[in-house]
Amino acid sequence: TGTISSLQRQMEIQESELRRIRSEKQLLQKQLREREVQLQAVTDKFCSLTEEQRQEEITMMMKEENHNLQQIVTDQESQLAEQNKLISELQGTISQLRAEAVTTRLQLLKHKQAQKEIQSQAEALQHKELQTRVALEHISSKFERYRNKIIQATFSVEGSQDPQTELTDDEVLEALQKIINERMEFLQKLKNKGGK
Q1: In a domain, 12, yes or no
Q2: What's the number of domains the chain is made of?
């Protein structure tokens, strides 16, 4: 946004300069017209002189005025050429600034779109994380119930003592394995004696 504002300010400055140059051009053209009016006034003035004086005076005045006008025209042409060159450069700069402003706007739109996509992905990940937590809590609850059943089955065997402290998973498995081994030994003894 700052870049766009800067570009717009530069465009306004360049356009203001262009207007100033055009105004100066109009002023020079106005001065030229005023010179032409003055020349006409001088011509009218000499109409009252005698023909010979008139011709001589007019010739001198015309030479001088022509010289002055030629100099003015040369100066104005030079100034107009410089102004036209500057106008062309300013128009090129304005076009470039406009193009840069359009490019910057497009980049901003792309950044906003990317930001929206990232935000959408983040929301999807948060939703997935929530689902995963719920599933994990459900699995943890089932595991805890299963663990409690194993502990209950293990220490409900005749001759077993209830644990005095909270058991680790390894201790539970060890106690369960001990019961399984004892039963396997008991079954083997029965087989050896021929019992059912």
Answers
A1: no
A2: 1
